[in-house]
Design brief:
Elements: H1 4-15, H2 25-36, H3 42-52, H4 59-83, E1 87-88, E2 91-92, H5 94-97, H6 100-118, H7 123-151, H8 158-184, H9 188-215, H10 218-221, H11 227-230, H12 236-244, H13 247-258, H14 264-274, H15 277-298, H16 303-318
Antiparallel strand pairs: 1-2
């Protein structure tokens, strides 16, 4: 069994090559630029790790891992357009560096290339992999739409937000594990457990992301705390604070989020601390992580083979960057 670091290096060597023709360069060069931006590539490596859970990594797993990474980058390109985001991974977003129309087309053709890699599979795998891939792709779009819908609403419940994040973030992690398991020959029971493992890792990952945005060390996290607060984003932290805090604190929080107070971020963070939202977030994150590890423990392979996945799950959730 190989560690995340070992497989990540191998996947980068496999993936860092030309995926697109040279012409028209006005379409394909932007994609090459976007794929060159530094990324952690957790999802494709999860696919490889799940395949190796049941034996040797199958050659076809590298193609599916590439398809997953291309699909993920397609979603990022389009998300950046919808969010009007100027930066991605510390560099100009595609629509900022080029233009919005080019970014839309570049994202579209990146999705097409993902399907090209799926089409390389042997016939017995194409149908089950496509079923997982297409279901996941639709759910990611549903999650993004719900996220945009929530921006227009004054109130969103914790359960609604949890459902949205499951679709927008968790299902792709879950599907990456499940598709790797399919190619590795996992049983239906083991594949279902892999999927649930990925879902819970995704929720814990998002919880940690929200937490770091509010309370992370700027030097480690790479940006000043409170970006979500400044953007008035509905996060796990904000939704729980609105449900948990007192009537007076709730009113103050609503006024801060609706206003442009120069001290908005420190005031909101102090309210979070007063309501013990920081403690709640750490506990909830660990709950999701423990549920993920429980599902992983149930998978019917020897424990030693699960260790790299366990280590990666803990890395994703306990990271401080």
């Amino acid at each position: 069994m190989q560690s995340f670091e070992e497989l990540s290096k191998k996947f980068s060597e496999h993936f860092n090559r030309a995926h697109f023709p040279e012409e028209p360069s006005s379409l394909y060069e932007p994609n090459n630029y976007f794929l060159s931006l530094p990324g952690k590539r957790f999802r494709p490596v999860l696919c490889l790790m799940a395949c190796e859970l049941f034996g040797e990594i199958q050659p076809s797993a590298w193609d599916i891992a590439s398809a997953i990474e291309l699909f993920h980058n397609f979603t990022l390109i389009h998300d950046d357009i919808m969010d009007k985001a100027p930066k991605r991974r510390g560099q100009p977003t595609l629509h900022t560096k080029y233009n919005e129309s080019t970014a839309i087309l570049a994202g579209d053709v990146m999705l097409v290339k993902a399907y090209d890699y799926i089409n390389k599979l042997s016939p017995e795998y194409i149908s089950p992999i496509l079923a997982i891939f297409n279901k996941t792709a639709a759910e990611v779009c549903e999650g993004q739409q719900l996220d945009m819908d929530f921006e227009k609403r004054d109130a969103v419940s914790f359960d609604e937000y949890l459902h949205m994040i499951t679709l927008k973030t968790s299902v792709l992690l879950a599907a990456s594990l499940q598709m790797g398991g399919v190619l590795g020959g996992g049983s239906l029971g083991n594949l279902a457990l892999l999927y649930e493992t990925g879902k819970k890792i995704g929720l814990a990952f998002q919880m940690q992301d929200d937490y770091l945005d509010a309370f992370g060390d700027p030097e480690k996290f790479g940006k000043q705390p409170g970006g979500d607060i400044l953007a008035n984003k509905k996060t796990f932290l904000l939704i729980q604070a609105l449900e948990q805090c007192s009537t007076g604190q709730r009113q103050e929080l609503k006024e801060l989020m609706a206003g442009a107070d120069k001290e908005k971020v420190p005031k909101v963070l102090q309210l979070y601390r007063d309501c013990k939202i920081d403690e709640w977030a750490r506990e909830k994150k660990n709950l999701f992580l423990n549920e993920a590890l429980d599902h992983l423990n149930e998978i019917a392979v020897i424990s030693q083979r699960k260790l790299p996945l366990k280590e990666l799950a803990q890395l994703l959730v306990k990271r401080d960057y």
